[in-house]
Amino acid sequence: MAHDHEQQIKTYGKVFAIGISLNVAYVAVEITYGLMLDSSALLADAGHNASDVLSLIFAWFAMAVATKQPSQKYTFGLRRSTILVSILNALLLFGAAGVIGWEAWGKLFEPAEVAGTKVMIVAGIGVIINTVTALLFIKGQKNDLNIRGAFLHMAADAGVSVGVVISGLLINLTGYNWIDPVTSFLILIVIVYGTWQLFVDSINLALDAIPKDIDYEEVKDYLLNRDEVNDLHDLHIWAMSTTENALSVHLVITECSQDDFLKTLKHDLHDKFEIIHTTVQLERKGLDDSLEIE
Questions:
Q1: pLDDT tens profile 183-209
Q2: Which residues does residue 281 pair with via DSSP β-bridges, in sequence order?
């Protein structure tokens, strides 16, 4: 049997290019004004945004690499790099959180004078840029862990920038400069909370856990409820990348048209469970036929 193993992987090249360019420019603005105004909240947000720029770059690179054709050494290609980059991005964000926390802790005991109005203006620009960037990824985030990570980071950044605007307003109204480092700690909480689930999901995929959107028992029941199937064993479901799921199984079948059965099986597993790569071994009373469908 001949099978088409090539899968089209969207790299979202233009989306990543636009998002990265906008955020690099904004990080430069935040760092400049954060140092000029001695605002730990602005510097904290700049650190977060800088780590997100790295995340976008790594995610874009991984998705581009994932399109490379399989070779004799990497027989599945380099699709799994998207999972490894998801882990790297999460670790980068945790590192950025540590730096932000250290800086804010020092400012908490020695609050610096902060120009609230200017902080509000710079952070307000961030609200616009991060919202626009998040909207660029809103469509693709439903089907890809890397894109979802980018979307969540940008959406969180927009919320964080809103928090910095509020911080500047409160400083203007009250004159309490300790509000600035306290805002940094709130930003820290947002980063850790938003990153943790991404980290857990990425580790699970790296360990070949069943993808979170697939119910193992539901897939098993579907296979066993087929009229042609008497029994099954060695059912495995895992992620080949952040967008592609795979399945392998041994099925004990009755007399049937194997071509029709495999064609229907492939179609249903793809449409019902988003499983793209399927390898099935058919067994029937002394007959052991290994048939792969892709």
A1: 878 878 877 887 788 788 889 988 989
A2: 250, 290
CATH number, domain containing residue 227: 3.30.70.1350
Residues 223 and 120 in one domain: no
The runs of H, that is alpha helices, within the chain are 13-37, 40-65, 81-109, 116-137, 145-174, 179-206, 216-224, 258-273
End-to-end C-alpha distance for the chain, whole angstroms: 10
> What Å distances lie between residue 33 and 39, 118, 203, 272, 283, CA to CA?
8, 8, 37, 51, 69
pLDDT at 63 over 90: no
What's the DSSP call for residue 280? E
Confidence of residue 290 (pLDDT cuts 50, 70, 90): very low
164 and 119 in a common domain: yes
- How big is the CA angle at 146 (ends 145 and 149), to the nearest 5 degrees? 85
Q: Is the four-CA dihedral 112, 115, 121, 122 of positive or negative sign?
A: negative
Shared domain for 117 and 183, answered yes or no, is: yes
Rounded CA separation 168/123 (Å): 9
**Residues in contact with 238: Cβ distance below 8 Å, sequence separation at least 6, in sequence order:** 205, 208, 209, 210, 211, 245, 246
Residue-averaged pLDDT of the chain: 79
Contact 19, 154 (CB under 8 A): yes
